[in-house]
Amino acid sequence: MTETWNTNIINGILRQLISESTPSPTAQCPYKYAVNSTIIQHAGGARSVSGGDDDSASVTSQARRGMHSACGGYWNAEKDGMWAYKHTLKDMDVVVSIIWIGI
């Protein structure tokens, strides 16, 4: 389902960006957009982590993944930019980033 969710997220954001930034229905959108969507599933339940051959060193912990993402650009700061947002749900995070470049 993640492929469908990402496609729906990206297409919905692109439609809204173009609609909101185009001055009239006959005008051309004054920006180029790039939208990225990443879905990170939280691993559920407890997970056992062993400290080696000694089973007594095993630790049970909540399994959860960490993530760091970064993006940079060189452009005209008056017309171009980027924005990112992380939405946390019970069993997943959705990270969306948008880049726009003035035409």
Total DSSP helices: 1
Helix and strand string, N-terminal first?
HEEEEE
- Distance between the first and last residues' Cα: 35 Å
Q: In order across it, which strands form the biggest sheet?
A: 1-5-4
The CATH class is identified as Alpha Beta
SS strand fraction? 35-45%
Output mean pLDDT.
Answer: 83
Walk me through the structure.
With 103 residues, the protein is α+β, with helices and mostly antiparallel strands. It has a single domain, classed as Tctex-1 (Ribosomal protein S3 C-terminal domain). The chain contains 1 helix and 5 strands, in the order αβββββ. The strands form 2 sheets. It has a 3-stranded antiparallel sheet, covered by helices on one side. It has a two-stranded antiparallel ribbon with strand order 2-3. Strand 4 and strand 5 form a beta hairpin. The two termini are 35 Å apart. About 10% of the residues have low confidence.
Explain the layout of strands and helices.
Elements: H1 2-21, E1 31-41, E2 46-49, E3 59-62, E4 81-88, E5 92-102
Q: How would you summarize this macromolecular structure in one to three sentences?
A:
The protein is built from one helix and five strands; from the N terminus they run H-E-E-E-E-E. The chain has 103 residues and is of the alpha+beta class. The protein is flat and about 50 Å long.
